[in-house]
Amino acid sequence: MYRFIYAVMLAALLAVNCAKSDSTGAHAKRVFSSLADFGGARIASEEESVFKQYIDRVIPNVEHVHYVSLADIVSDLLEGKVDAISLDMPIALYLAARNNSLAVFPFVVAEDGYGFAVAKGSELGVKGNDVLANLRESGIIGVLEKQWFSSDEGVKSMPRLEHRLDFDGSAGTIRYGWQNTLIPMAYATPEGVPVGFDLDIAHRIAYELNMNVTVTTMPFAELLPSLISGEIDMAGGSLSITGERQQSVDFIGPYFEGGTTLVVKRSRMGAPPVRQ
Question: What is the pTM of this model?
Answer without folding.
Answer: 0.72
